[in-house]
């Protein structure tokens, strides 16, 4: 606090009205030359800007999201896009109409992840109910740390978790919505470690034997990140061999566990995967659970959460509050501020019901089966593996390679096909589909259908378009 | 993939029109009895729902956010609120009008964190520009992993980071926007650890000496969470004593470092705080930096980020893409999917300019000074400490305690005052302000002014209202 502050209180020059008679009213207060009366925000201008922007979002995003004739993306390389967008932040602010034009440009050059033909990652199209929930969330701007500041959203999260636990078939359980799968994997690892040795929370890993976790070679890459972040080390993630379908082989798991024990290390966790990232494979959970039981290993999360993370921050989680503080779940998470992610799921669930959710899953699987049959029928398309779920991995073999023997030259050439077709589809903006190499297999496309806005026509288009873009190769 | 699938292709009964002549058109495709033609979502109904919900959000949240006559909260205890809200998810979905009523209830019973008199946590009121950016984000639903799917938002993040690095005065730098301070502290800790021993990424902490980090006793509680999560252990967070203003004492830091070394442990990180959570104290960075330099200790983040987190997930971060893959920053973060958090800040910066941001800071500090002077003037209010920044910690001493000697009975009784006033303000809905005990000091209120919508009148109201609610105690 500056000692030489210029603190003064006086009436504004020339301002004479009745209200001046009321003490404290209309008295301009200045501190260090700054007028402190009233809010400084121009609420009317702000409100109008929000209204105009909402109209723009409605027209340019929501209404266009189901139109397959719109482009999926408006590709521009980074240097070009920098020239097209006015990104520079200046000393003075921009007027509302300039900002609205900027918003329009942001929308224009952004990838339309809601588009029925955006298949690049696991997106489910535009869900109107989830979108409304997220608009409400952003407008209310809650942070789910305590019941006091987030009463509705904590109850919503509780209701969703309760229902999910019911569906799993558990009698009891607890949980928390996380920002994503990577963070969830970290939680799982931390919980397993805490179960092995609760003292880790205070003592850390110092002086402990080498801890080993087991996961399939097909697991999500976040397992390695988690092991690195949590101080376990990526070399202490033992990858268990998978079968031809990408499923963990239980006998191999058992062998790896014995190997770790012989090395003098301590197995503490098995991370099984139900639906691997690339192939969509399901590890055989029953057989894995039996092995975990025999070795006394952790297979999944439970309600140790709270004891494990609690840091008892007295400034946030006062125990002398006037309500049931068990609703203050903020101390369960590694974050402090946290969005109510359960709310969007809850809104969709309320809107379409359990049966509606079920229909979506069934239809996605039926569409996957349709696509698989089409891939089998069509010349130049080849499945990497017969899928057991919604992940469909396939190569497109252009005419020039169709008669070639499947030797090193063939694979080297095929490896270049998917990147080229991807480049062409993005520049055209007709479609977005992911590709990757995987465990010795050259670049292939991966399609995962999950959106209720996707139809059989889109599946046909997908194959037609790949063929159209690649047939000259 | 089920072997006994019922795969059929036929024309819908009774449907005869010209389009049937075009092969593949209007041909109903069923797989396992599920019709695959066209999207299943009712887009019109969905669009109308979004429109109606936007109107509701505008009226009930945006337009009311600046009105101090609106209640800050509509308090209901958990069991009561559960009865008021229809939280149950059922087999069938609910119709749009029921959903809209639900949305209205959600808004009604949620705390209005935008309200000019919500001071419970560090909120800055409703920022119209940030809100629009967040609406756009939710509508476009991007995830900032690669340039390919998030071109605009990656460039925006780069522009904001560049500008921030410029303001700090660095010639170069790199960074990433994180979901919050807790996660950022974890990154800092992980980077420091990586600097001390890059092999930790692969080998983990096994076999390493005990690692020690130093932070002030006033630090954010997330430091302990981070130490626990990263396998360092909370006992290996050495808290350095602070002076009367809550600042780390450099000489004490030096002593603690020597102590750790004598114990055979390895100091690796000093976490200084610029603006502590409760008191708003600034650690003396220059003196701390000198000590860190002498001991070879890490004081803050740098651009080791990428090497440190990279897991090189080939399915996401293909190196054979047709554009500059240095824009695919997803591998820098511990998350995979990630929201473009820089975008909302960018939009506000664009809208009000650097000068507008500066004005906000200056006005918040001036309002803080005003409040401090008022606290000093008024009977029954007592500053905990002369603030140096925007955090103002104070007690309200009700009339019955004003003549009492400041002994154990006084403090025991004063400890109960803030919780009671807090309960009353929440039940009335007039104001929300946080309180906490802190390092031997009994419960006190903490006010941090940051919102441009807050005025001198709100500061007066804050003190008037506390006095009104507490004067009978």
Kindly describe this structure:
Chains A, B: InterPro entries: PyrdxlP-dep_de-COase (IPR002129), PyrdxlP-dep_Trfase (IPR015424), PyrdxlP-dep_Trfase_major (IPR015421). The structure is a homodimer of 473-residue chains. Chain A is of the alpha/beta class. In chain A, 42% of the residues lie in helices and 11% in strands. Chain A has a five-stranded mixed beta sheet. In chain A, strands 1-2-3 form a three-stranded antiparallel beta sheet, with no helix packed on it. In chain A, a hairpin with a 7-residue loop joins strand 8 (381-383) and strand 9. In chain A, helix 4 (128-140) packs antiparallel against helix 12, helix 6 crosses helix 8 (222-229) and helix 9 packs parallel to helix 10 (285-295). Chain A starts with 6 loop residues before the first strand and ends with a helix. The relative contact order of chain A is 0.11. Chains A and B meet through helix 1, helix 2, helix 3, helix 4 and helix 5 of A and helix 1, helix 2, helix 3, helix 4 and helix 5 of B.
């Amino acid at each position: 606090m500056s000692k030489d502050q210029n603190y003064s209180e006086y009436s504004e020059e020339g301002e004479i009205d009745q209200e001046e008679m009321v003490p404290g009213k209309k008295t301009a207060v200045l501190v260090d030359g700054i007028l402190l009366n009233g809010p400084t925000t121009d609420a009317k201008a702000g409100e109008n800007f929000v209204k105009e922007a909402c109209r723009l979002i409605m027209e340019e995003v929501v209404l266009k999201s189901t139109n397959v004739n719109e482009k999926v993306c408006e590709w521009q390389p980074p240097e070009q896009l920098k020239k097209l967008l006015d990104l520079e932040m200046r000393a003075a602010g921009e007027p509302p109409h300039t900002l609205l034009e900027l918003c329009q440009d942001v929308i224009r050059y952004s990838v339309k992840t809601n588009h029925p033909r955006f298949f690049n990652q696991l997106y489910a199209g535009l869900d109107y109910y989830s979108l409304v929930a997220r608009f409400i969330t952003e407008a209310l701007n809650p942070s789910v740390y305590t019941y006091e500041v987030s009463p509705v959203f904590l109850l919503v999260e509780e209701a969703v978790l309760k229902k999910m636990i019911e569906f799993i078939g558990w009698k009891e359980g607890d949980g928390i919505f996380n920002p994503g799968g990577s963070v969830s994997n970290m939680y799982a690892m931390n919980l397993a470690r805490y179960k092995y040795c609760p003292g880790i929370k205070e003592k850390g890993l110092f002086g402990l034997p080498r801890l080993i976790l087991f996961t399939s070679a097909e697991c999500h890459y976040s397992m390695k990140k988690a092991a690195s972040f949590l101080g376990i080390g990526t070399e202490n993630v033992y990858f268990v061999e998978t079968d031809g379908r990408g499923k963990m082989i239980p006998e191999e798991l058992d062998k790896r566990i014995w190997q770790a024990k012989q090395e003098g290390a301590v197995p503490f966790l098995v991370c099984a995967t139900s639906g691997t990232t690339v192939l969509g494979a399901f590890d055989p959970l029953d057989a894995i659970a039996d092995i975990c039981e025999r070795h006394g290993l952790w297979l999944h999360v439970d309600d140790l959460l709270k004891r494990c993370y609690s840091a008892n921050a007295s400034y946030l989680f006062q125990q002398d509050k006037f309500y049931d503080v068990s609703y203050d779940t903020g101390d369960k998470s590694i974050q402090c501020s946290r969005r109510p992610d359960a709310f969007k799921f809850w809104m969709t669930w309320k809107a379409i019901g359990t049966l509606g959710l079920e229909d979506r899953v069934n239809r996605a699987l039926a569409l996957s089966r349709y696509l698989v049959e089409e891939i089998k029928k069509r010349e130049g398309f080849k499945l990497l593996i017969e899928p057991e779920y919604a992940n469909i991995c396939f190569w497109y073999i252009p005419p020039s390679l169709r008669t070639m023997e499947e030797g090193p030259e063939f694979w080297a050439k095929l490896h270049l096909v998917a990147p080229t077709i991807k480049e062409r589809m993005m520049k055209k903006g007709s479609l977005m589909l992911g590709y990757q190499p995987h465990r010795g297999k050259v670049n292939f496309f991966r399609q995962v259908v999950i959106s209720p806005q996707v139809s059989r026509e889109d599946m046909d288009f997908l194959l037609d378009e790949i063929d159209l873009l690649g047939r000259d190769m």
